[in-house]
Amino acid sequence: MRIFFAGSIRGGRQLIPTYLHIIDFLKSHDCTIISEHVASQVLEKTEAKMTEQEIFEKDTTWIEESDRVVAEVTVPSTGVGYEICHAVAHKKPVLCVYEKGAKVSAMVLGNTSKYVTAIPYSDKKQLEETLQDFLEK
């Protein structure tokens, strides 16, 4: 299964350890993460060599080529929101996970389409159970 992983880049990088945990969990369940770079410590330096147009085209193409999208939405990010919408427009199932108590956008939490599921987690075990459920659907 090909998964596009979305997480905040320019909005804040404080959840890189969580991004890595999600990616590692998905990879351990035979998933190919086509946007694994989101968890890279040097991503901003790498993307600085690309134009905004190149980033846009790369990410939207990857979303279209994916089977599903997993988005960590604890840290507000316009880019992640856009990626979620792009996935929905292409009828891709999207799982949005976020730390319990986070102030997540109403645009994410209020999306009741059949393509978006938003679920809070309070620890790694609960996060893994949510990811597992999403993979089994």
Automatic annotation (TrEMBL):
Gene Ontology MF terms: 5-hydroxymethyl-dUMP N-hydrolase activity
Domain of life assignment: Archaea
Swiss-Prot/TrEMBL catalytic activity: 5-hydroxymethyl-dUMP + H2O = 5-hydroxymethyluracil + 2-deoxy-D-ribose 5-phosphate; a pyrimidine 2'-deoxyribonucleoside 5'-phosphate + H2O = a pyrimidine nucleobase + 2-deoxy-D-ribose 5-phosphate; a purine 2'-deoxyribonucleoside 5'-phosphate + H2O = a purine nucleobase + 2-deoxy-D-ribose 5-phosphate
Pfam families: Nuc_deoxyrib_tr
Coiled coil regions in record: none
The keyword S-adenosyl-L-methionine is assigned to this record: no
InterPro entries linked: 2'-dNMP_N-hydrolase, DNPH1, Nucleoside_deoxyribTrfase
EC code: 3.2.2.-
Statement: the UniProt record of this protein carries the keyword DNA damage: no
GO terms (BP aspect): deoxyribonucleoside monophosphate catabolic process; nucleoside metabolic process; nucleotide metabolic process
Residue sites binding substrate per the record: 19, 83, 105-107
Keywords: Glycosidase, Hydrolase, Nucleotide metabolism
Similarity-based family: Belongs to the 2'-deoxynucleoside 5'-phosphate N-hydrolase 1 family.
Quaternary organization: Monomer and homodimer.
Purpose: Catalyzes the cleavage of the N-glycosidic bond of deoxyribonucleoside 5'-monophosphates to yield deoxyribose 5-phosphate and a purine or pyrimidine base.
Family matches, as PANTHER family: 2'-DEOXYNUCLEOSIDE 5'-PHOSPHATE N-HYDROLASE 1
Protein name per UniProt: Putative 2'-deoxynucleoside 5'-phosphate N-hydrolase 1
Lineage: Archaea, Methanobacteriati, Methanobacteriota, Stenosarchaea group, Methanomicrobia
